[in-house]
Amino acid sequence: MILAFFHRISQMFFVLLGVSVLVFAIFFATPGADPTARIAGRNAAPQTLEKIRKEYGFDRPLPVQYVIMMKKLFITQDLTSYADRGERVVPEIFRAAPITFSLVGGAALIWTVTSIAMGLIAAIFKDTWIDKTLMSLGLVGISIPVFWLGEVVNLITQNRYHDTWLFSWVPALGYIPLSENPIGWFKALVFPWCVLAVLFIGIYSRILRADLVAIAQEDFMRTARAKGLSSLRILLWHGLRMAMITFISLFGLDFAQLVGGGALLTEVVFGLPGVGRLTYQALSSMDLPLIMATVMYSAVFVVVSGAIVDLLYLFLDPRIRESHKKL
Question: Where in the chain are the domains?
């Protein structure tokens, strides 16, 4: 199991290498993407352009520029922004990451607990009005755009009913650090958590319900029922355990994608200066150092989450454990 984990982690370096080369190549191959002109400003003199090319190393071959950028990003960590001259990109990522972690972590907890409960209840009461009602609610959640729901929540809590007793406790849009004010941190994030979680509750509950219904017809479930085990115990211990394989696989990818900047719309709507918003600003200004830093940050989480999901597979499915032992 440990060897499998380290083998997957070793693949991370090849993935990061490929992603970094691709991003670097696309940036310099894009028409009008010359960073020299953006740094120098409009109508800059040729002498100024030449000076910036030498200062930033743009006059050197592209492979050399790539190596220098990777060294500054991962080793010396003094890579600076092209848009905001002198601003180091690594500290910017470190400042934005806790905000995104806070948003995604709370939302993940909500959608995990709620979707498991909805999926289990729907599977237990299959084809009843309870099942149909819960799955209909899940479909509604999938259909609602995050930015629209966020704007509606802001309209209610920040504007129209903010002065009432129901929402007077809601702080202004923005982020309150956990270390400064834990209660304020919770109040500022509780609605962003719920808004971000709605979509995933709908997806995960429907997938879990479908897996539980399908697994109920498997041979090992029939064997458990023949042994006289209670239906609830069979569903929770045998059925849910196997159904969680798909659940965890999706969760690993979605969580990594959101932590890597996929929660952009939620961050923008609620004024949270997280990684997603930082990535959007970098793309808007075509700031290669910041783009490279945010992409590498996202790629690391995707690869690491994939390795963790593989380990959880070994725990949940004994057939996978046996195959690894044979290898």
Answer: 2-89, 94-326
Query: Length of the chain, please?
Result: 327
94-326 under CATH 3.30.70.3190, yes or no:
no
Could you give the 3-state DSSP secondary structure of residue 88? Answer: strand
Q: What is the DSSP letter of 176?
A: -
Residue 169 CA to residue 188 CA, distance in Å, equals 10
Distance CA 267, CA 103 (A): 8
Total-model pTM:
0.84
Helix locations, 57-128, DSSP H = 62-70, 89-124
Q: What are phi and psi of 88, to 5 degrees?
A: -80, 135
**pLDDT digit string (tens) for 133-180?**
999 999 998 999 898 999 999 999 988 888 888 888 989 899 999 989
| Triad 281, 176, 287: Cα angle to 5° | 15
Alpha-carbon span 49 to 43, nearest angstrom: 10
3-state secondary structure of 80: strand
CA pair distance 183, 189, nearest whole angstrom = 10
Return the amino acid letter for 321: R
Q: How far is residue 279's CA from residue 173's CA, in Å, rounded to a whole number? A: 20
